[in-house]
């Protein structure tokens, strides 16, 4: 079936379906005639399971391990319950602190911030969590394009150095020299631009959209 049908059946947008494909969570077969993706009912079922787990804020990496059989669902849910219990306790304490601040009837400029922060810091040292922090999903997503870009940039810089050394010992024709040096520079600029665009997608576009599921 086509992606439009999958979008309707799984309740996930095309953008998110592509995102999960890029992450390697689903791998639809290709039509040998035209090369287009052909989704199956198994793909739809898998997308629904992914959607369920993402609504429970299960990290992408854990879902990948579940799919690959490296993590049992029980262990995954045990970890999620532990995190939820910690978050729930944090909400209780945040409510108490908010109520205390209301009872103090202080204006914004008169809040004794240090007093409340000290209370919260003590609780955080005991394992309390006051913010709904996604563990490392976004950071991990950023590391991949940054690492890939860094490898290519270093490689291109190495090529530039080699060209420079060779040109010193055996000068190339004047018309060719600019081309030899321009090619790696263009590649470096393109890689940096692509890396920057990918990080933008992760921070505010594709990644944030996919996190809804």
Task: Give a verbal description of the structure.
This protein is mainly alpha-helical and 213 residues long. A two-stranded antiparallel sheet has the order 1-2. The protein starts with a helix and ends with a helix. Helix 7 packs antiparallel against helix 8. It has three domains: 65 residues, Orthogonal Bundle (Multidrug-efflux Transporter Regulator, Chain: A, Domain 2), CATH 1.10.1660.10; 53 residues, no CATH class; 74 residues. Helix content is 71%, strand content 2%.
Provide the number of structural domains: 3
Structural class label: mainly alpha
Count every beta strand, where a strand is a DSSP E run of 2 or more residues.
2
| Helicity, as a percent range | over 70%
Strand order of the largest sheet: 1-2
Q: Could you give a short account of the major beta sheet?
A: 2 strands, antiparallel
Overall pLDDT metric: 83
Task: Tell me what portion of residues adopts beta-strand conformation.
Answer: under 5%
The dominant shape is: flat
Protein traits:
213 residues; mainly alpha; Multidrug-efflux Transporter Regulator, Chain: A, Domain 2; two-stranded antiparallel sheet; 9 helices; flat
Write the layout of secondary structure elements.
Blueprint: H1 3-10, H2 14-22, E1 29-30, E2 37-38, H3 41-55, H4 60-67, H5 73-104, H6 113-125, H7 137-169, H8 177-204, H9 206-210
Antiparallel strand pairs: 1-2
């Amino acid at each position: 079936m086509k992606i439009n049908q999958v979008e309707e059946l799984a309740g996930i947008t095309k953008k998110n379906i592509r995102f999960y494909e890029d992450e390697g969570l689903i791998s639809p077969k290709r039509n040998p005639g035209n090369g287009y993706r052909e989704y199956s009912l198994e793909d739809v079922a898998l997308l629904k399971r992914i959607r369920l787990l993402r609504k429970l804020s299960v990290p992408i990496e854990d879902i990948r391990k579940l799919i690959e059989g490296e993590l049992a669902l029980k262990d995954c849910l045990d970890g999620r319950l532990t995190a939820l219990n910690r978050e729930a306790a944090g909400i209780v304490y945040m409510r108490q602190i908010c109520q205390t601040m209301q009872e103090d009837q202080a204006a914004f400029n008169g809040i004794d911030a240090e007093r409340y922060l000290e209370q919260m810091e003590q609780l955080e040292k005991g394992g309390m969590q006051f913010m709904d922090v996604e563990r490392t999903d976004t950071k991990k997503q950023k590391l991949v394009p940054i690492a890939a870009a860094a490898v290519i940039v270093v490689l291109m810089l190495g090529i530039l150095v080699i060209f420079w050394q060779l040109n010193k010992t055996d000068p190339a024709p004047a018309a060719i020299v600019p081309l030899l040096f321009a090619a790696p520079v263009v590649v470096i600029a393109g890689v940096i631009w692509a890396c920057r665009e990918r990080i933008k997608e992760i921070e505010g576009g594709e990644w944030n959209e996919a996190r809804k599921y």
